[in-house]
Amino acid sequence: MASLAPAQDRRAQTLHLDRPRRGQEVVAAEHLSKRFGGVVAVDDLTFRLEAGTVTGFLGPNGAGKTTTLRMLLGLVRPTAGQALLFGSRYCEATAPRVGAVLEAADFHPGRTGREHLMTLALAAGVPARRVDEVLEVVELGSAGRRRVGGYSLGMRQRLGLAAALLRGPELLILDEPANGLDPEGVHWLRTFLRDFARAGKTVLVSSHVLAEVAQTVDRVVIIDRGRLVTIAGLDELTARMRGAVRVRAPSVRALVPALAAAGLEATVLDGDELVVPGASPDRVGEIALAAGVALRELVEESSTLEKVFLELTSGGRP
Amino acid sequence: MTAQLRSELRKMRTTRTNVGLLLGLVALVLFGVIAGSLGGEADLSLPENQREVIGNGAFAAVFAALIGLMAMTSEFRHGTIRATFVFTPDRVRVIAAKVLASVLVGIGFGAVGASIGLGTGTLMIRLRGYDVLFDAADVRRLVLGTIVMSALWAACGVGLGAVVRNQVVAIVALFAWVFVVEILLFQYLPGVARYAPGAAGTALTGDTVGSSSVHLLSAPVGGVVLAAYAAAFVLAGTVLIRRRDVT
User: Fold this and answer.
1) Chain A residue nearest residue B18, CA to CA
2) Any chain B CB within 8 A of the CB of A231?
């Protein structure tokens, strides 16, 4: 198994010395804004990433994720605010510490995968040996000699990741890397990113589907229409994922004050039906018994992370 | 800078585009020489007609311009520009390396075009039974001029590509200029046409009249004018590439 870091790359070794310790700030978006003509793509976005974390960058399509990532990488110039990686704007000094996969289609179809990596390796002063190493890491070993035009979308994603790994980065920025990967590929990517973060490195991975990254990330930065919606640990998001209890009873309204007394807020849906979010069926049953309300139905309704995500973003709006 | 140059040269030789351009150049020069020397109207006893046959190697300049133009625009067309700029955030360095790499390949194209034009041209003239009225100084000027013209056109191509970015638009613009605009200029504004990039390049090869009756610039002045065009295109391209977002 090839290693994730370049074996004897001198530059990588010196970088190793000043690698940020866990908890140190690696990415800082400060009041980042971008306007394209009259369209505001990113609007006053502020967030920070610490070393050793895997952060999901989430939002529906068109939320401004891609534009934000490109501002971090110096491809797009912010209209206002600034994007800092390792404390400075993306530049020649920070570039070797950062790996990025932006689009799965960014290859010349007539060039082989290995030659694509070679053109980048030459520019970065990375030895050819490292090119073969990263091809092994992404499991493209023999396919590297074929033209990219014949690659599947999944193979292109892997080739992009191989390019991102060339310089042995401490920070990976991935834009929708799971697009086009089969379930096996998604699993592989998940394992890969976990191992990467376990080594104290940092990952920022965007997606428009929370479920895609939920098993990989520690935290999420959720944006919608260019604005920050929330920054939360995955555990906090899970905590919001409380279920609800649906109750049907002939005199259901009589239950509302009893529930309120127990600190539970209920919403009456119909004449004989109400919903109590964040409660357990056992508890609601006890309260109903104490209040002397006969129940016709007591059902637990589960929620999912995806629902929480949709509620937080415009996807949940009517 | 050396690293970036090596990267750019690697890009050039790992797709089939540039091999195709080289083959196209060889084919076009051969066609020009053969058609020009066998045509019924061609009186090869006249030195200017001999020059026209032998000078077909000057097509190399257009191909060199395409090399430079593709070096820039194919990165935008295929999206590789993103990886290129992520690996080398200093965009000026990327453009400088592309100019240098294109100039080097342009020199090669110029040498190939001039040699084939000269070799097959003199052969055809002799086969037609005429004496070759080209002395060593003429040959030197033709070969060097074609090489310098091709090198400068390659730089122009990178600059034009950087300004336009869209590959198809850039190629159409290049061809429209070379094969339409400059020819119209010669027809209607000959005084201005002498200073056009194509005419300035032709002057470099030692041609004094070109394909029209208008007197061209002297070779050194032609070289300076063409170099100024190359510098202007590269500068404009650099300014724009630095400023524009890569989305």
Assistant:
1) A110
2) no
- Cβ–Cβ below 8 Å for B14 and A119: yes
Other beta carbons less than 10 A from residue B16's beta carbon: 11
Nearest residue in chain B measured CA to CA from A161:
B83
Q: Three-state SS across chain A? A: CCCCCCCCCHHHHHHHHCCCCCCCEEEEEEEEEEEECCEEEEEEEEEEEECCCEEEEECCCCCCHHHHHHHHCCCCCCCEEEEEECCECCCCCCHHHEEEECCCCCCCCCCEHHHHHHHHHHHHCCCHHHHHHHHHHCCCCHHHHCEHHHCCHHHHHHHHHHHHHCCCCCEEEEECCCCCCCHHHHHHHHHHHHHHHHCCCEEEEEECCHHHHHCCCCEEEEEECCEEEEEEEHHHHHHCCCCEEEEECCCHHHHHHHHHHCCCCCEECCCCEEEEECCCHHHHHHHHHHHCCCCCEEEEECCCHHHHHHHHCHHHCC
| 68-87 of B, contacting A, C-beta below 8 A | 74, 78-80, 82-87
Identify residue B199 by its one-letter amino acid code.
Answer: A
Half-sphere CA count of A244, side-chain side, radius 13 A: 15
Residues from chain B contacting residue A77 (CB–CB below 8 Å): 245
Q: Of A77, A103, A122, which is closest to B7 when you measure between CB atoms?
A: A122
Q: What is the ipTM of this complex?
A: 0.91
Check residue A10 and give its pLDDT: 40
* B86–A98 C-beta distance less than 8 A: yes
Cβ pairs A/B, distance under 8 A? 85
Residue among A42, A122, A157 with most chain B CBs within 10 A, to mutate: A122
* Beta carbons of A123 and B4 less than 8 Å apart: yes
CB contact under 8 A, B246 and A91: no
- Residue of B70 and A271 predicted with greater confidence: B70
Q: Shortest Cα distance from A53 to chain B (angstroms)? A: 22
Report CB contact under 8 Å: A123, B7.
yes
- Over the stretch B116-128, which tens digit does the pLDDT of each residue have? 999 999 999 999 8
Predicted TM-score (pTM) of the model is 0.86
Mean pLDDT score of chain A: 87
pLDDT single digits (tens) A257-299: 989 988 888 888 877 888 888 788 888 999 999 988 899 999 8
Single-letter residue type at A81: G
Element (H, E) at B165: none
Q: Do A106 and B79 touch (CB under 8 A)?
A: yes
- State both tokens at B239: 């300014």
Quick: pLDDT tens for A43-102: 999 999 999 999 999 998 889 999 999 999 999 999 999 999 999 999 999 999 999 999
A172 within 8 A of A201, measured Cβ to Cβ: yes
Nearest to B15 by CA among A109, A295, A178, A298: A109
